[in-house]
C-alpha cells in the first residue's frame, strides 16, 4: 500500500512534475525531485506540493513581470541633464518597477542608474554632484563653526553626490561630516560631546544625577507625567518655536536659565526657562558645561549669538 506522500510520484503541481523521492530532512520531512515545464529540475518538500498552486522552479515568478519588460528603447536620448547610455540588465527585484537605465550627467559626467518612469516624469531632473558644485547654489562653509566642530576644508563628493568636510573638533580630533548634517545640528562633535554628556550623568552636580545606581534618564521619571505636561505647555506657549533662532521644524527642549541643581525653586518657574532647539541647547552646554549654570552665562551666550549672527537671531529671554 502506497503512502500518501508516495502517491505524488508522477503527479503535476502547477508547472512541476514529481519524478522521484529525493531525501528526508532532519525533521523527517520528505523531499521530491521535480522537473519544471521549462526544463529545470528542483527539489521541493512534500507538504509544499499542493493542488491548485502554480508551482515552478521560479520561472513563473519571472514570467509574471515580463509584461513590464516591454520598455521603449530610449538609449541616446537626453532627459533634462541625463544622457541615457544603456539599459541596465533587469533582476527579479528591479523588473517589477520597470526598465532601469544607466545615465550620465551632461554637466559633470557622473553616472547613475535611473528608472525610465523617473526620467520621463522629471522626478530625477538634476544631478546631486552638480548641485554641490554649482556656483549659484554652492555655499562655502569653511571656517564656520557648528557645535564643537570648525570646518577646515572640503573633499570631493561621494557616490551619492554629497560633499564631505574635514572638521576640527575642540578636543583636537579631526572628523568628516556632510553639509546637511552640520547645518541641521545632527553632528556637533567628533563624538566627544556624547561621551562627555554620558560622563556628566555620573557627576553629582548634574541635574539628572541620582545616587541610585539605576540613574534617572530624564526629568519625567523624576517628577512624573505632570512635569512632562508642564514642559509641553511651555512649548505650546512659545508656539513651538526656538526662542533664539525662531526655528520651528526642529527638536525643541526646555532650558533652565538658572541651573536645575543650583536653583530648585526655579525648576517649574516659567520665568526661569526658555524653549530652545536641540542644536542651540547643546551648543550652550558645550561652552558652559552641564550643572551650575547661571543667568549671567545665559546673557553672555545671547550677547555672543547676537554679535555673530546679527539680525538672524530672534532673542526671547
Description of the structure:
The model is unreliable at 212-224 and 310-317 (pLDDT under 50). It is built from 9 helices and 14 strands. The protein has helices at residues 59-63, 116-121, 128-133, 179-184, 192-200, 219-223, 225-237, 278-288, 295-309; strands spanning 12-13, 16-24, 30-36, 41-45, 78-79, 82-87, 100-105, 111-115, 145-146, 149-154, 164-169, 174-178, 252-256, 273-277. By secondary structure, the protein is an alpha+beta fold. The protein has 4 domains: 6-63, no CATH class; 70-131, no CATH class; 139-192, no CATH class; 204-312, no CATH class. A hairpin with a 2-residue loop joins strand 9 and strand 10 (149-154).
Q: How is the secondary structure organized here?
A:
Elements: E1 12-13, E2 16-24, E3 30-36, E4 41-45, H1 59-63, E5 78-79, E6 82-87, E7 100-105, E8 111-115, H2 116-121, H3 128-133, E9 145-146, E10 149-154, E11 164-169, E12 174-178, H4 179-184, H5 192-200, H6 219-223, H7 225-237, E13 252-256, E14 273-277, H8 278-288, H9 295-309
Antiparallel strand pairs: 1-2, 2-3, 3-4, 5-6, 6-7, 7-8, 9-10, 10-11, 11-12, 13-14
Amino acid at each position: 500500500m502506497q503512502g500518501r506522500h508516495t502517491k505524488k510520484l508522477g503527479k503535476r503541481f502547477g508547472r512541476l512534475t514529481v519524478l522521484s523521492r529525493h531525501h528526508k530532512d532532519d525533521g523527517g520531512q520528505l523531499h521530491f525531485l521535480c522537473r519544471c515545464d521549462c526544463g529545470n529540475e528542483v527539489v521541493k518538500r512534500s507538504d509544499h506540493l499542493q493542488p491548485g498552486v502554480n508551482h515552478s522552479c521560479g520561472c513563473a515568478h519571472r514570467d509574471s513581470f515580463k509584461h513590464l519588460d516591454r520598455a521603449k528603447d530610449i538609449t541616446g536620448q537626453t532627459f533634462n541633464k541625463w544622457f541615457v547610455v544603456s539599459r541596465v540588465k533587469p533582476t527579479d527585484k528591479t523588473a517589477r518597477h520597470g526598465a532601469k537605465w544607466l545615465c550620465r550627467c551632461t554637466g559633470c559626467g557622473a553616472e547613475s542608474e535611473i528608472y525610465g518612469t523617473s526620467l520621463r516624469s522629471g522626478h530625477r531632473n538634476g544631478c546631486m554632484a552638480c548641485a554641490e558644485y554649482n556656483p549659484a547654489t554652492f555655499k562655502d562653509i569653511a571656517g564656520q563653526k557648528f557645535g564643537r566642530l570648525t570646518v577646515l576644508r572640503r573633499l570631493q563628493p561621494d557616490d551619492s553626490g554629497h560633499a564631505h568636510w574635514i572638521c576640527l573638533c575642540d578636543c583636537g580630533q579631526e572628523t568628516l561630516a556632510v553639509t546637511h548634517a552640520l547645518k541641521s545640528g545632527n553632528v556637533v562633535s567628533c563624538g566627544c560631546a556624547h561621551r562627555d554628556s554620558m560622563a556628566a550623568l555620573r557627576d553629582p552636580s548634574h541635574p539628572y544625577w541620582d545616587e541610585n545606581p539605576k540613574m534617572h534618564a530624564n526629568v519625567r521619571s523624576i517628577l512624573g507625567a505632570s512635569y512632562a505636561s508642564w514642559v509641553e505647555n511651555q512649548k505650546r506657549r512659545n508656539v513651538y518655536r526656538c526662542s533664539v533662532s525662531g526655528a520651528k521644524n526642529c527638536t525643541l527642549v526646555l532650558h533652565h536659565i538658572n541651573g536645575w541643581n543650583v536653583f530648585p525653586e526655579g525648576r517649574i518657574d516659567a520665568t526661569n526657562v526658555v524653549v530652545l532647539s536641540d542644536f542651540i541647547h547643546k551648543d550652550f552646554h558645550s561652552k558652559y558645561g552641564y550643572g551650575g549654570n547661571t543667568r549671567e552665562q545665559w546673557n553672555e551666550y545671547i550677547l555672543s549669538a547676537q554679535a555673530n549672527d546679527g539680525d538672524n537671531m530672534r532673542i526671547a529671554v
